[in-house]
Amino acid sequence: MGREERGVVARGTRLNEAARTLVADHDRAVEAVRAALAPLHDAEVRRGLDAIPVARLQDVTEGRLRLGGVQDSGLRTVGAVLDAGPYRLRQIPGVGQRTVDQMLAAARRLADAVHETVAVHIDVDRPEPATTALVTALHVLVEAGDDTRRAVAGATTLAQRLDPLLADAAPAAGRWRMLLAGREKKARALAAVAGIRSLLEEAERERAAERFTQASVDLLREPDSDIAAWVDFELRSAEYYSLLAEISGRSPDAAAAQGFLPEEIAERVRSQDLDDTHRRVSLRGYQAFGARFALAQRKVILGDEMGLGKTIQAIAVLAHLAAEGQSHFMVVCPASVLVNWTREVESRSALRVSVLHGPDRQGAFADWKGRGGVAVTTFDALRGFPAPGGGEVGLLVVDEAHSVKNPKAKRSQAVALWAERCERALFMTGTPMENRVVEFRNLVAMLDPGVAESLDEGDARAGSVAFRKAVAPVYLRRNQDDVLTELPSLQQTDEWEELSASDEEAYREAVRAGNFMAMRRAAYLRPEKSAKLGRLREIVQEAGENGQKTVVFSYFRDVLGVVENALSTGTKDAPPVFGPLTGSVAATRRQQLVDDFSETPGPAVLLAQIQAAGVGLNMQAASTVVICEPQIKPTIEHQAVARAHRMGQVRPVHVHRLLATGGVDERLVRILREKTRLFDAYARRSSVAEATPDAVDVSDTELARRIVEEEQARLGL
């Protein structure tokens, strides 16, 4: 009996040592990241302070400081003031001790603010020793993966449970110590041994010792080379930046990450559990909150801006419900992203995927009904499947849900019926409202008729704040600027071109005919003398000389054909051209085009129809975006740009909109500004917009008629 107890204590001690060794190895890896980050962060803080003019100190002190003498002395920035210190500041004529104290206190407050908000951006095109050290330190943890993260969490918990038990069981570790122990210590030791034995059995079932050992090995494995670490960073930058935010503690503002929901809803969401047993991807804080929101509120719209990982959040919800015992799930999406959804579910979770598409979709549906898993289908195919009974489907996911905003459309009616029959539904869209708030209300009505009915015209007239508060139970939106501190810059340039005489003649013919669509693409009708096409060639050439990939968007297939011909008949060293990717290209082929474009070393060009490629396809390989003409709906442009400027992008993104002066483009741009303002007020967070949506809205048909008439009048036609 004593020998068995001693064996249990010895095994418990070894397991505890293995757990603590793993925790220590992980702590060292984390500390290596912090040590590499510190000098980079300090340099960013310094740059930030050197960019703040000394006049800002007046703002901090509400105008109490007189800084004329300080500026005359050559101290132009807050950084210079801090460098000068109290002694030099006191030497400035007219500056007394009290002013010095106030000035330095204000400068330190600004320095603290900069220190808390500044983010380190890793420039993949200009690797330096300091950034290389950070990337290689992060690589160890990223490469170790989610299994190591779970192992560390398990080791931490196990050590916390074993420590007190081993302390109480100490007398049982030796024969004489047990004999000499008093009755109370002996009883406590026997109880502790029983507890250790239970933990050992649990650890053996989970193969904890092997997992701890493997995780320690993974944490000690360094990259094959600095180049290997940089290549991996470019491929998986989102994971690197996510880990960096977690380690640095510089997470996004909590209110922003929670979509500025009312506190009572946010608290309910925060208390929702989230099981990761079937998930193979780590979540950022705002993503975990989004998944919890869907679980806590049951039927919701996740309206995160493009590029924030709505698909991953949906997969987290699916994995949690699968862990709770749910067996059947349905994902409805456009045909263009069927392949992407299948890939994501397979790579990010342990769930089985069935594609219900094509001629054999009914057979695939029957197989899914029998075996379970995640079914992925299209809006049109969904209409051919019988709606489920109550409790039969654990979650209905509707991607690009703005596609079903028209309640009279058959696809919308099919989705509404499924949403009604499922206990949980997750609608995903970065564009929940394109023209009218009433369309957003239609989406809400499928999920919560009560909330939809409560949205009357008064909410719209009261402004966006009242509207957002009213829809908070079913709607969550976060914007990139609020939660992605590492996102590279986005530079948008309107490239205004004077139409050539040939362009002008083609445009006048389109106006005379009253053909709105011909007016929009007239600048490309005569390629040999097209001003827009000439500028497009220059942009692509410049991007290529800088080793960058370019994606060219147009609404019109024939414009893409003109662009393809112009770029393909250039010099022999012109970058390869892929596409055009249009609505007629099969879903699998679309994904293959994007993959080929992304995997091509060096410069390349992808041609894409904006309404086909602006949905669901990720194009982070491109850092230059060209939009051939302004679009009627601003959300179409936003979606297209977000295909490149999204989580995972490692380079600054430059967007060029090709615009012609004095015609349809100018009129469209003016209207687009109004529509963008409307969207920002009602679909994003805003506390200042007060305008009624219907005051600025016009239908696409009315817009076209109005522009044609205005242009005919302007040109005397």
UniProtKB/TrEMBL annotation:
The keyword NADP does not apply. GO terms for molecular function: helicase activity. The keyword ATP-binding applies. SUPFAM superfamilies: P-loop containing nucleoside triphosphate hydrolases. It comes from Streptomyces fuscus. Residues 291-450 form the Helicase ATP-binding domain. SMART domains: DEXDc, HELICc. Keywords: ATP-binding, Helicase, Hydrolase, Nucleotide-binding. This is DEAD/DEAH box helicase. Residues 535-704 form the Helicase C-terminal domain.
